């Protein structure tokens, strides 16, 4: 087995394309992030320059003895502890990746991705650094091949516009805080995806953010649906302010966006926090089924 690192997302996608296309649901995070980063680079946007991480972001493919790409990982998260994200890989490869990062002098403070590979990577990192592994949270990847859309509550679904950018940014931030609270965890301002007004505007311009507007004109809900990568679109985040919950808005919007994606020819997936039984039950009722369990781990 051989590890091949990349600093350029387009070069990585050229190398990993067949792997990501072979199981595009499992590879949705790496494919989506890599393609979005490639678009930013092509447009002259260097979002990583604002991160201030003590290393350059990277992608890596795992090649077998025949030279075929059999797995991949990346370290592109723009928030501390800058966790990696890995696809399933053999235990020996996960350990080899930990060793390679240790030899580069790159401290790995977190590891996200598919089990058991992510656990092996974190355990070996902790062993090399003299640290310990803590579970941040367990997540589950789901896919819907068909969907049952609940009846629409009063209001309408519309795409977010640039005028909604400040609200969308605020709700992105609140989503991570309240997701921790709903799962019984102390909210961690350093965890989860961090966004800026510019990053939100980019997502709005690509048409990936959707809002539910009440008959009064008040906006009551946000759901994201990513652009398809290798034929797969991902739903999330899903956020309803407390004062608008219990009306079936989230169930309808997720169902409607899923239906639209399926009708457009995309496979549809989403992630849930395993510690939040409410959201797991809602998405299962819509038609989503579990694909694989993953974990977010910290090395301390």
Automatic annotation (TrEMBL):
Domain N-acetyltransferase: 155-300
GO molecular function: acyltransferase activity, transferring groups other than amino-acyl groups
InterPro entries the UniProt entry points to: Acyl_CoA_acyltransferase, GCN5-like_dom, GNAT_dom
This protein's name: GNAT family N-acetyltransferase
Organism of provenance: Nocardioides currus
Listed Pfam families: FR47
Keyword Transferase: yes
Keywords: Transferase
Keyword Iron: no
């Amino acid at each position: 087995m051989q590890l091949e690192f990349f600093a350029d997302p387009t070069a990585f996608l050229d190398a990993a394309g067949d792997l990501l296309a072979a199981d595009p649901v499992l590879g949705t995070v790496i494919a989506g992030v890599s393609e979005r980063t490639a678009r930013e680079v092509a447009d002259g946007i260097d979002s990583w320059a604002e991160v201030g991480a003590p290393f350059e972001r990277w992608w890596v493919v795992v090649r077998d003895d025949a030279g075929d790409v059999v797995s991949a990982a990346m370290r592109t998260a723009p928030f501390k502890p800058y966790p990696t994200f890995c696809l399933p890989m053999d235990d020996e490869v996960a350990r080899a990746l930990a060793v390679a990062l240790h030899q580069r002098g790159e401290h790995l403070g977190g590891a996200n991705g598919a089990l058991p590979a992510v656990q092996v990577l974190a355990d070996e990192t902790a062993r090399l650094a003299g640290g310990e592994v803590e579970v941040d949270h367990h997540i589950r990847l789901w896919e819907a091949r068909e969907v049952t859309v609940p009846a629409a509550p009063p209001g309408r679904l519309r795409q977010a516009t640039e005028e909604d950018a400040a609200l969308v940014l605020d709700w992105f931030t609140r989503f991570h805080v309240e997701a921790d609270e709903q799962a019984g965890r102390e909210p961690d301002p350093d965890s989860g995806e961090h966004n800026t007004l510019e990053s939100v505007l980019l997502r709005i311009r690509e048409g990936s953010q959707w809002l539910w507007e009440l008959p009064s004109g008040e906006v009551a809900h946000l759901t994201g649906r990513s652009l398809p990568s290798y034929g797969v679109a991902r739903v999330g985040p899903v956020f309803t302010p407390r004062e608008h919950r219990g009306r079936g808005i989230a169930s309808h919007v997720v169902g409607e966006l899923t239906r639209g994606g399926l009708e457009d020819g995309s496979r549809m997936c989403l992630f849930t926090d395993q510690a939040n039984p409410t959201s797991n039950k809602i998405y299962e009722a819509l038609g989503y089924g579990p694909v694989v369990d993953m974990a977010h781990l910290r090395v301390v």
